[in-house]
Amino acid sequence: MKSILTILSTRVLASLHAIGAEGDPLIRPSTDDKFGDYQSNCAMGLAKKLGQKPRDLAARIVEHLDVDDICDKVEIAGPGFLNFHLKPPFLAKCLQDIPALPQDAEADRLGIAPATPTETVVVDMSSPNLAKEMHVGHLRSTVIGDAVARVLEFAGHEVIRENHVGDWGTQFGMLVAYLRRENPAIADHPESLVISDLESFYIAAKKRFDTDETFKTESRETVVALQQGDPQTRVIWQAFCQESLRHCHDIYDRLQVKLIDRGESFYTDKMESVVATLDAMREKDPQGFIRDSDGALCVFLDGFNTRDGEPLPLIVRKSDGGFNYATSDLATILHRVESLKATRIIYVVGIPQKQHFAMVFSAVRKLGWAGPDISLEHLGFGSMLSKTGQPFKTRVGGTVKLKDLLNEAVARARSVLTQTTPEDQPQNRSAMTSDQADAIAETIGLAAVKYFDLSHALSSDYKFDLDMMVSMEGNTAPYMLYAYARIRSIGRKADVDWSSLPTDVPIILEHPTEMALAKKVLQFAEVYDLLVRDLRLNVLTDYLYELAKTFSRFYDKKHGVRIIDAPEESVRLSRLRLCDVTARTLKLGLHLLGIETVEQM
RNA sequence: ACGCCGGUAGCUCAGUUGGAUAGAGCAUCGGAUUUCUAAUCCGACGGUCGUGGGUUCGAGUCCCGCCCGGCGUACCA
Known about the structure:
Number of strands: 14
Structural class: alpha/beta
Largest sheet: 5 strands, parallel
Distance between the termini: 32 Å
Number of helices: 20
Radius of gyration: 29 Å
Helix content: 40-55%
């Protein structure tokens, strides 16, 4: 299904060609109802380029415009805006063209075609350090990365969600050494390892490391053993990593996020070869952009300076011979390009690392490891702050575990659910058992956290406010889920089976709220186009909120229309169809954001 | 010092290559309820878009200066 905006763009473009002009038709939804449904802003800019009067050019565009099948009228307004007033029958036809709900409801595309051609995209996301428990700092990358992956998957691309976990480095020597001390039998039964609290395990190990010289030495020896591939050490290390990953996947499962775990350790040999290659280049050309500096192997790139104004290098081998994250990022890019055949790599990592990625990308380009046909993108996001705008910490200044945060959100959702279902008015609500309420609260609570995050512009910091996100009012997940649940409730009450609702009934758009809802539903296609182009997820949340609000008006007893007891059967069917496409749009939109719906609340 | 990001209503935030009178939610105030789930809807109030210049038919958006805040600036990731 093409968006109305796309159709109008095509028509205006054709008209521009007819009068020998070239340019973007600049079609946008009208800023005000009195300016019609869509407007074109292209005449003013074009007129200037052509040395004509804007209104004259606008008139010529209209003269050559063929939109009789779409519009009632096209007006020229102000300095040269074109205002398009859509034909209700055209909108009705567009709605009727939305295919029926497929057998597999999960496969519902609302008539939106996949992209052509498709490509292989790597989304680098989440990436916690396995030494510790996942904390709130991993929330945004996980939630945003998942939504981006879902959007691109829906567009038809092959998406590989890479969880580049930290499972390598000196701290793992310490943890393995500590594990061996605390649990000497671990090497014989690695699969039985259970660490209930990773965080306190790490803290205990660290304390020992700082206070016990013997243990410190032991830890260092363990790191060496690990790096040399000592089988017994590796078994324990692997047991630890797997246990830590189990903790992570408890959270991923809960969030319904699917990931491929590929940790640092996977790249150890690849990092060796990256450094060997660069070192060889350095030897061949000692005065080139790859040089030794203070004992470190460095790649020097234009445009990056230290605070003293000296050239700032990308260090790929530290002076102690060790590797750092630049080394591993170079190795991952090679792997993703050469082995995974990715043509687009998206890093969902916080904005503070912007410079790092700029340097890595610059190095990769300069080295020729990724040509112009490969897109490297850092999708940076802002920080999550506390409600007061301070860094997000516990009262004692520690990091907040992601698990605790999610539990808190679900508990709040549960209490909102209880509060809004007063015992003395049970008839106001669908009957709900305590278990059902728990399950619904789980969905709402997680939805609230995700939706609140995604409804902010990616690059801005936001203040984490539980009260706000679980509220039924405003641009929140509960409001959205409620709108969806209400529609489903209408279906139950009207005793209709949505999947067998006849799709060949005429759609009647007479009431203003019917028109408004029809337009809003059809707008999904253009919002989706924008979303795929820019990956600006809040564009979708804003749209879904508008859609939910538009539905609430349509459904409102005073300003809206009757549905189940509509005056005529044809009208009833038409309105039920509107309900259906609204619900499906809400469901699909939320699904693309990684948010599940509930059938009742 | 340099670089990046931000400063929009009392609060939280939108604002798509520059477009018409800068939007929404919360809060406050007023209205609608014998309910197809009022968990909602309608209305009102609320702005020198940090600041001073510039570019032009038109600037929250682009350019320059300044103020304020955050982050980054060689071997932590």
